[in-house]
Amino acid sequence: MDIRQLKALAGERLAAARYDAKKLALIFTGASIALSLLMTLLNFVLSRQMDGTGGLAGIGTRTLLSAIQMMAMLGGSLAMPFWNLGYTRAALDTARDGSAEPRTLLSGFRLFFPALRLFLLQAAIFTAIIIASVQLGTILYMLSPISEAAMLLVEDLLAGGEAALADPAAIKQLTSVFWPMYLLITVVLLAVFIPVSYRLRLVEFSLVDGEEKALKNMVTSNLRMRGNCLWMFKLDISFWWYYLLQALAAALAYGDLLFPGSDVAYWVFYLLSAAAQLAIGFAYLPRVQTAYALAYEEITMDKNNGQVL
């Protein structure tokens, strides 16, 4: 299907939905931002409490507050992927028959263990890719002529003993001379990471669509995306404006860097960022996610008609 036709169809499905898709997106985005705000506020308060309990007498209090802080942050971080799965299910229901409703957003939590297995398997795959890319990039750098200057510098520093290695100027010089290696590692990482990411683009849609076995889900996604990665890339590029708006809204939260040490500026820019994200989610998230759900439907139907599955 042509991308323009896909987007037009997404608009039709949104218009025909039984529950207002923008209200659903508002609930989803609002709850996400509320959780983020709660975690940020808790972190802020606990950090201030820990700063006020100095000395040996307050070490127990600081330890307790730090543990509460870590548990709260971990709990919020763990909840978000399952909440996101709920909206993926809602987008798929909207694309199919318009049956999505607020309680659909909770469906991701009902897939807790299958989703957890899938997330862990994804994390293992991408961690392995990062480690392998770093090793391969380092080997390629060491075998290339451009590493000679860096090796000579390392030899000189080693000959100078521990004092030379601990010198801040020497560390800065090492960092500057090794930049080709960092660049090469980045290139290798992107060359592997991007294709693998696109091959696994359908795993979350497959999960909420009933494919709960993590390994089978990944194999299925890989097969379905064969020959469709470029098309999906074009679909991503067509939404460049949406991702740009999201990036700008997120960057707004760092506006307090212009006013170092000001808690008021920190919260003002944080709330402005949250408001911008809420507005973007309300206005555009339904259109974007429904288009991706229709892309999943199109690819699945294409493969089920005999090409791969």
Description:
It is a single chain. The protein is built from 13 helices and no strands. By secondary structure, the chain is mainly alpha-helical. Helix 2 crosses helix 13, helix 4 crosses helix 10 and helix 12 packs antiparallel against helix 13. The mean pLDDT is 86.
Task: Summarize the SSE layout with pairings.
Elements: H1 3-16, H2 21-51, H3 59-96, H4 112-143, H5 148-159, H6 162-166, H7 168-177, H8 179-199, H9 203-208, H10 214-225, H11 229-238, H12 240-252, H13 263-307
What's the quick description here?
The protein has 309 residues and is mainly alpha-helical.
Order of helices and strands: HHHHHHHHHHHHH
Gyration radius, to the nearest Å? 24 Å
**Average of the residue pLDDT scores:** 86
In which range does the helix fraction lie? over 70%
Number of helix segments?
13
Task: Please state the overall shape, judged from the principal axes of the Cα atoms.
Answer: globular
* SS-based class: mainly alpha
